[in-house]
Design a protein that fits this description.
Layout: E1 3-7, H1 11-23, E2 27-31, H2 34-43, E3 48-51, E4 54-55, E5 58-59, H3 60-68, E6 74-79, H4 84-92, E7 97-100, H5 105-123, E8 129-131, E9 134-137, E10 142-145, E11 148-150, H6 154-164, E12 170-172, H7 173-181, H8 191-204, E13 214-217, E14 221-224, E15 229-230
Parallel strand pairs: 1-2, 1-3, 3-6, 6-7
Antiparallel strand pairs: 4-5, 8-9, 8-15, 9-10, 10-11, 12-14, 13-14
Helix pairs in contact: 2-3, 6-8
């Protein structure tokens, strides 16, 4: 699991971003102040920093400068400052990317995943998830069962990714619905979760009526019911 430091003083936005990152399988540390962010960074192994520029008791530029004195960790600015001078300054002091508000969650997550894949390639990180005869490669959007590729729709892929990245954890129907909906900004009704879970089971379960992997938690949601390993 990769660790992300999220520095954002808008509590509601921080919670929203944190939730979406955790759903992608990341561990998220949240801060709203400059010194708080530095303390978290200094006391934890952080792989990527996402920071607003306007902070309490300092700003994101100062944070970036302090971090760059000791680390080449990946850093994204996520800010309402959209003037050319601010963007240039951000890159000049060491940011790897600069995203302006309002922003698309789909774009943010895509950029985060792309940067994390860069880390994985450099460090040889194990990112293929194996579970019994299943082998799932998120970066390639590829699922193999006993070595044979299984073609998934976009929604089936999203559901599988959400579940298999959080084995043995209950994922609510609302969380799964959001995983289908908000990244593309396309409305999906509540029946989409059940329909796509059924289709996914038909592709990965030996007996879809008695599923081994995707268990229904009555009245709550679903759970990936097997331990997974990364290879």
């Amino acid at each position: 699991m990769k660790n992300i430091l999220l520095v954002e003083d808008d509590v509601s936005l921080s919670r929203g971003i944190s939730f979406k990152l955790k759903r992608e399988g990341y561990e998220v540390f949240c801060a709203s102040k400059l010194q708080e962010a530095l303390d978290i960074f200094n006391n934890n192994e952080i792989n990527l920093v996402i920071s607003d520029i306007g902070l309490e008791e300092g700003d994101g530029f100062q944070l970036c400068e302090e971090i760059r004195k000791r680390s080449n960790v990946l850093l994204i600015f996520l800010t309402a400052l959209d003037q050319e001078v601010d963007i240039v300054t951000g890159y000049d002091i060491g940011a790897d990317d600069y995203i302006t508000k309002p922003f698309s969650f789909m774009v943010l997550i895509s950029k985060v995943n792309a940067l994390m894949r860069r880390i994985a390639k450099k460090e040889g990180v194990k990112e293929v998830i194996e579970c019994r005869a299943l082998s799932f490669n998120p970066s390639k959007m590829q699922l193999l069962i006993e070595g044979n590729e299984v073609v998934l729709s976009k929604n089936e892929y999203k559901l599988l990714s959400c579940l298999i990245n959080n084995p043995l954890q209950i994922i609510t129907k609302e969380q799964l619905l959001e995983s289908l909906w908000d990244k593309d900004g396309v409305y999906v009704d509540e029946n989409a979760v059940a329909v796509n879970i059924r289709r996914l089971r038909e592709k990965i379960e030996e007996n879809p009526s008695e599923p081994l992997f995707i268990k229904n938690i009555r009245g709550i949601g679903y759970r990936w019911n097997e331990e997974c390993t990364r290879v």
